[in-house]
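Field: COMPLEX_INPUT
Field: COMPONENT_COUNT = two
Field: RESIDUE_TOTAL = 227
Field: MODE = joint
Values follow.
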Amino acid sequence: KNQVEQSPQSLIILEGKNCTLQCNYTVSPFSNLRWYKQDTGRGPVSLTIMTFSENTKSNGRYTATLDADTKQSSLHITASQLSDSASYICVVCNQAGTALIFGKGTTLSVSS
Amino acid sequence: DARVTQTPRHKVTEMGQEVTMRCQPILGHNTVFWYRQTMMQGLELLAYFRNRAPLDDSGMPKDRFSAEMPDATLATLKIQPSEPRDSAVYFCASGPLAGYTDTQYFGPGTRLTVL
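Field: COMPLEX_OUTPUT
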C-alpha cells in the first residue's frame, strides 16, 4: 500500500536553532516528492519539488534531501525564525503521475 | 500578484442542504485541483481538471459530490446533500502545466461546517 509517514508529529524549537523533519514513503516507483509549508488558516505553499534522480534541493533556509534507495526524505530548516511556525507536509507523486500520496504533516512551533 | 481565489471563505450549513464552493484559478493555468483537509485525514485529493475536462475524480464521493469547470475562470465543487462528516477545509489549487508533477498554487480554502 502506498503510504507517506512523517515524523515527528510535532516539534518545538527555539528561534535561531536548526531542525530536521523526516518523511518516509513506500510509493514505488515514484515521480517526484514535494514539501509544502502550511501556515495556520492558509493554503499550502510549495517549498521544494524533487525528482527521483535528485538528492538535494534548497529554497533559502530550507533544504530538502532525498534518498531513493532507503525511500526517505528530510527537510532541514536552518536558523529558524518565528515565521517558520507552520505545518510541513510531504507529498509523493507516483511514477505515472496519476496519484498524489500525502503525509499527515509535522507541526513546527518556533518560540522566542 | 496572481492568486487562486476561493469563495466563500467560511460556510456554516445544516445537514441536507446544498453547498457550492467556487474557485477562480490563476489566469493562464490549465489544471485545477480540489482538495479536502481534516485533522484526522490530512489533505486528500478529490478531483483534478485539465483544460476544463475532469481527468481524475476517484477521490470524490460520487453520490453527493460533483465538480465542474463551466469556463476557464471558474471551478465549482458542489455537495448535495451535505452531511456533518463533510465538515472540512476545501482547497482549490491551479497549475500551469498538466499532471501532478508541476508546482500547484493553493487558494486560501473554504472552511465548511455542516451541523
